[in-house]
Amino acid sequence: MNIELSPIERAHHQDRTMKIYMLGCVDFDSLLVLQERAVQELRRAQNETAVLFICEHPPLITVGREGSHAQLSGSYQELKAGQIEVRWVNRGGGAILHTPGQLAVYPVLPLKQLGIGVQDYLSRLEQAIIAMAAEQGVEAQVQPGSTGISSRCGQFACLGAAIKSWISYYGFYINVSPDMKLLRLIDSNRYDHRLTSLSATLTREASMSSVRESIVRNLVSRFGYRDTPIFTRHPLLNRVKKKVYVHT
Fold first, then answer.
1. CB count, 10 Å around CB of 51?
2. Residue 60, strand partner residues
3. Other CB atoms closer than 10 Å to residue 149's CB: what's the count?
4. d(CA 19, CA 234)
5. Strands 148-151, 141-142: parallel, antiparallel or unpaired by DSSP?
6. How far apart are CA 37 and CA 44, in angstroms?
7. What sequence ranges are listed for the domain BPL/LPL catalytic (predicted)?
8. Could you give the CA distance from residue 211 to residue 206 in angstroms, rounded to a whole number?
9. Tens digits of per-residue pLDDT, 6-22?
10. What pTM was estimated for this model as a whole?
11. Cα dihedral angle (167, 240, 129, 177), rounded to 10 degrees?
12. CA 135, CA 89: separation in Å to the nearest integer?
């Protein structure tokens, strides 16, 4: 159902600004610092300004509050031998494998100022992912009782959101075209869903730029932002290249 906004409400929505940082492969710790600074700035501003970080990460496994050692297919020694670090982080969801070819999306939104509750926020993220997948030619749905979004071939995206002082951070991750061997380092049996990617579902290479453009557009639309300046660099950013060794 479309809700008609009054002239005052329309003007109010048009004043909303979301700064979008379209970044490359970014060190995970650097993104944590950027998010923390953005949260602090939004807390001081007390307005509807938002920040959206879009990037990829060098290989790393993070484990959220619902995760456990059982989700790691290999031992810590095996992962260390493959130069894959394991980090325990304060976000929702379980274990997530980060790697180039996976799109990491971090919306930093002032939920209180936007009048959005936690469940509504998560639902809007899920619907943005599903809409993006449809544009790529993939039928997707939310898996009941889990934090994942799945296609006919398995789970290709997962939410790992967190909220501090009613400001969102962390976000979600979309497997666009990662090395499928690396995905085997995560055991998804917790939800009984195997991990896959958009490329594997489509049986062709999915376009990272197309997925990135679509997910940004869908997020901006669902959260009612109009002013969306885009940046491709950040002064505090540390871009890295890291070799990956996988034992098969």
1. 24
2. 85, 98
3. 24
4. 11
5. antiparallel
6. 11
7. 46-227
8. 8
9. 443 444 455 689 999 99
10. 0.85
11. -170
12. 32
What is the per-residue pLDDT across 165-218, written as a single tens digit (0 to 9) for each?
A: 999 999 999 999 999 888 877 765 555 578 899 999 999 999 999 999 999 999
Pairing assessment for the beta strands 50-56 and 18-25 based on DSSP bridges: parallel
Q: Which domains does the chain have, with CATH numbers?
A: 7-231 (3.30.930.10)
Summarised one tens digit per residue, pLDDT across range 13-72 is 556 899 999 999 999 999 999 999 999 999 999 999 999 999 999 999 888 887 777 777
Burial 167-204 (b: 16+ CB within 10 A, else e): bbbbbbbbbbbbbeebbbbbbbeebebebbbbbbbeee
Residue 66's identity, in one-letter code, is: E
* 172 within 8 A of 160, measured Cβ to Cβ: yes
- Alpha-carbon span 145 to 188, nearest angstrom: 13
Give me the amino acid identity at 24: G
What whole-number distance in Å separates Cα of residue 46 and Cα of residue 17? 13
CB 180 within 8 A of CB 197: yes
What is each CA distance from 189 to 62, 95, 104, in whole angstroms? 17, 11, 22
Measure the CA–CA gap between 107 and 93, rounded to whole angstroms.
16
Q: How far apart are CA 111 and CA 4, in angstroms?
A: 22
Return the amino acid letter for 161.
A
Average pLDDT over residues 129-144: 95
Task: State pLDDT tens for residues 227-242.
Answer: 999 999 888 875 555 5
